[in-house]
Design brief:
Blueprint lengths: L12 H19 L4 H4 L10 H20 L21 H12 L4 H17 L6 E2 L6 E2 H23 L7 H18 L5 E5 L3 E5 L13 E4 L1 H8 L5 H6 L3 E4 L14
Parallel strand pairs: 3-5
Antiparallel strand pairs: 1-2, 3-4, 5-6
């Protein structure tokens, strides 16, 4: 018999909403304290400066509210775990949106307005609402999980580019880590390699002999931020191994051909 289809991971919608709101608040406070010199620094994300990146993060909240203001779609086309693979086609649109957002006024005002609009929109809508999105129609509950990825990844980008120290909500970090780990398992289904990202996720992937008990022969282990950077192209596999940020044992424990999952 074929193996049973794995049930999608469940997330607590209330905790995800709280994590997204709190993480956006952390970024808003930090952006308000950045100096002109920090805002002008490059991010390594194409031509984006820190100011461009900050505007994009404001747009994340603003676009969520705008999506909820549109008439709902009938059926969801995309799940949270499929979302990472659909993002590449939107790079140009997202870059344009960031520049348009930055032209909309001072960053502090943009963040204040976006936070208020997002809070009001979330208060008025349940997780079952289906959003009509550029990337494909998604339930609000699933889309909110993807917002943890956007916010955690870009908080980390801001911290490194601006030499900032913006905290990352544990619940947001956990959801981001788990979603990207599950995306790896979706991209390379199988049971020959176990990927461990303590304390948040363990997944099996890659076709080949399955282990049924004891220590698996092929194991990859890393910490959440290193995993997130690998999955989004901020760090490459070889560099992470050289710096002992990843431990990989077994002849199949090489994820270099599968990473990044998204950029």
């Amino acid at each position: 018999m074929p193996p049973a289809k794995k049930k999608p991971r469940a997330y607590d919608p209330a905790k995800i909403r709280a994590a997204v709101t709190a993480q956006f608040g952390h970024v808003a406070r930090a952006v308000g304290e950045l100096s002109p010199e920090q805002l002008a620094r490059p991010t390594g994300l194409g031509k984006w400066t820190v100011a461009d990146l900050a505007a994009h993060i404001a747009w994340i909240a603003d676009s969520l509210a705008a999506g909820l203001a549109r008439p709902p779609a009938a059926l969801a086309e995309l799940t949270a775990v499929e979302w990472p693979f659909a993002t590449a086609s939107l790079a140009g649109k997202i870059s344009e949106a960031a520049h348009e957002t930055l032209a909309g006024g001072p960053l502090a005002e943009l963040y204040e307005r976006a936070a208020a609009d997002m809070a009001g929109a979330l208060e008025a809508n349940s997780g079952a609402r289906v959003l009509n999105l550029w990337i494909g129609d998604m339930t609000l509950a699933d889309f909110m999980v993807t917002r943890t990825v956007e916010l955690v990844v870009h908080t980390d980008d801001l911290n490194r580019a601006a030499a900032a120290d913006i905290p990352i909500e544990r619940q947001a970090l956990a959801a981001c880590t788990r979603l990207l780990a599950d995306a790896l398992a979706l991209k390379a289904p199988g049971g020959s390699v176990e990927v461990r990202i303590p304390p948040f996720a363990v997944v099996q992937c890659i076709e080949g002999p399955r282990h049924t008990r004891g220590t698996p022969p092929n194991v990859v282990e890393t910490d959440p931020l290193t995993w997130i950077r690998l999955a989004t192209g901020r760090t490459d596999w070889a560099a992470a191994l050289d710096e002992a940020l990843v431990r990989a044992s077994g002849e199949r424990a090489d994820l270099s051909a599968l990473l990044p999952l998204m950029r």
